[in-house]
Design brief:
about 500 residues, two-stranded antiparallel ribbon, extended
Length: about 500
């Protein structure tokens, strides 16, 4: 260090050196603190390296993302073989044919006059030739000889002019498109190959679009029925809408389910669906957005909890987690046979489960994963065994998960675009230069319906007693930047002709 030119005395030089030393000491202390933080981070990461991976068996990872182990290629023999089964005879055959023997196979004698009984009976099942039933309606008319005005016959009932497709064909198109998940292009091919019926994709879109009003009314009825009940179950899963990540919610009970597609995963979705209604009981997983809506009790899904317990076991907690897993599986077994147990027996079982849980909670976990799990159990203990004495509740949220399953399986189907989360979507932001050949559709269980943000204006399709509610579009704040509802053809970015246009004949210069 070069001393300043105006400092020639010893004290000034020492002061400058001490200031420099203090600066170096402060920098060194900062480096030591940073090194300690990095060492702690490395230790934390090393601990995570020793943890087991998240799988569908020990977490909420969906089965589609799990890796199944390789098994033996050769089939194994059944432990308890049973007698083979055969196809039963049809209870109401279309036709019957009695065949009498003419000659004896042994000696060739004529046995046509001998009394014969039925020795063998079987069915031959065949599909008749399928062809469209086309009715050509010709409305005649002419000139009135009295007033000289032109007249025309009135169309018969059920054969009015307009769309040429009848109700049965419309129902079949809705079924194949929405239940079986066939894209529009493949649906056109199916109708042409099976029925010899040429229908354009635009005509299919018009068929789906025309059924909005009826299914929207059913959506409101199902939603009202769910909100009038005392029990409700809910779940949610990811959903691709256009190029955005949305969430598909389901609100379910018994044979009814309403789906809500929303860009958020917050409590606002549940609040918008419920309005001012609050059910007495609620079944869901432990996600905070689904907790706190029941007026009386909330039942958490024990299946989710068992998988979390399995993760603690895989992580190496032999003291607390195994006992908790056995207890939760015992509770699920009691729930499966409640129909054969009396109310007094169920009451004693619930008290026994609470005593067993006390003994399990008294154990000290030997692994951080077990300690974390024990903290979770302390918070949700009152929500574990609500179902035992309430026969209308279930121990798991399997009903809501099964309602969502078709949507997830459609996302993995090669016939539906996986980029749309299993629900084929044609939503666009503004105008799109890339039209899509699929309209919006959804899959669910019988007696299910789909609404947007809890309102009876569904943006996707869903099943209600084998029918699908087709929505009027998405509000401006949801997905589409428009002030008015859009039809499926508008969302595809092109106008659809009512009938297929003939392709020009190809010519060759040779």
């Amino acid at each position: 260090m070069t001393p300043p030119r105006d400092l020639h005395d010893k004290d000034a030089l020492i002061a400058a050196l001490m200031a420099r030393i203090e600066a170096l000491v402060a920098g060194n202390e900062a480096l030591v603190a940073e090194n300690a933080a990095l060492a702690a981070r490395v230790a934390e990461l090393e601990v995570k390296l020793g943890l087991p991976p998240k799988t569908p068996d020990n977490s909420s990872v969906p089965p589609s993302k799990g890796q199944k182990p390789s098994g033996a290629s050769a089939p194994t023999a059944k432990a308890k073989p049973h007698r083979g089964a055969h196809r039963p005879l049809h209870p109401n055959p279309t036709a019957k044919r009695a065949v009498l023997a003419a000659t004896c196979k042994g000696c060739g004698a004529d046995v046509s006059g001998v009394t014969q009984i039925v020795c063998e009976e079987y069915d031959r099942v065949e599909i008749p030739r399928i062809a469209p039933d086309v009715t050509r309606v010709s409305l005649h008319g002419g000139v009135c000889p009295c007033c000289s005005k032109r007249f025309k016959a009135e169309p018969p009932a059920g054969l009015e002019p307009g769309s040429p497709f009848g109700p049965n064909l419309r129902a079949f198109v809705i079924y194949l498109r929405s239940v079986q998940g066939l894209p529009l292009a493949r649906l056109c091919t199916v109708l042409a190959d099976l029925f010899g019926l040429a229908i354009s994709e635009g005509a299919l879109v018009n068929i789906l679009d025309a059924s909005r009003k009826a299914f929207s009314a059913q959506t409101c009825l199902i939603k009202a029925r769910l909100r009038a009940g005392t029990t409700l179950a809910s779940d949610e899963t990811g959903l691709r809408v256009g190029k955005a990540n949305w969430w598909l919610w389901v609100f379910h009970h018994a044979d009814s389910a309403v789906f809500v597609a929303d860009k958020h995963r917050s409590k606002a979705v549940v609040e918008a669906f419920l309005g001012g209604h609050r059910p007495d009981y609620w079944i869901s997983d432990r996600y905070g957005g689904q907790m706190g809506w029941a007026r009386r009790e909330h039942q958490v899904c024990l299946a989710h909890l068992i998988r979390d317990v399995q993760y603690a076991i895989d992580a190496g907690d032999p003291g607390f987690a195994p006992g908790l897993k056995s207890l939760l599986k015992r509770a699920c077994a009691i729930g499966r046979r409640r129909d054969r147990l009396s109310d007094a027996t169920l009451k004693s079982y619930e008290a026994d489960l609470d005593r067993r849980l006390d003994r399990v909670m008294a154990r000290v976990p030997s692994h951080p994963a077990g300690g974390k799990l024990q903290t979770v159990i302390r918070k949700i203990r009152r929500h574990l065994f609500v179902f035992v004495q309430n026969r209308d509740l279930t121990a798991t949220n399997n009903g809501a998960e099964r309602a969502l399953r078709p949507a997830r399986s459609t996302a993995r189907s090669p016939t539906v675009s996986a980029a749309h989360g299993g629900l084929s979507s044609t939503q666009t932001s503004g105008r799109s230069s890339k039209p899509r050949a699929e309209d919006q559709s959804g899959l669910s269980t019988p007696s299910a319906s789909l609404s947007t943000n809890g309102r009876c204006r569904p943006a996707h399709r869903s099943l209600h007693h084998h029918l699908f509610a087709i929505g009027k579009g998405i509000p401006q704040s949801r997905a589409v930047e428009t002030s008015s509802p859009m039809s499926d053809a508008d969302r595809m970015g092109r106008s659809w002709p009512a009938h297929p246009r003939p392709k020009p004949a190809r010519t060759s210069s040779l």
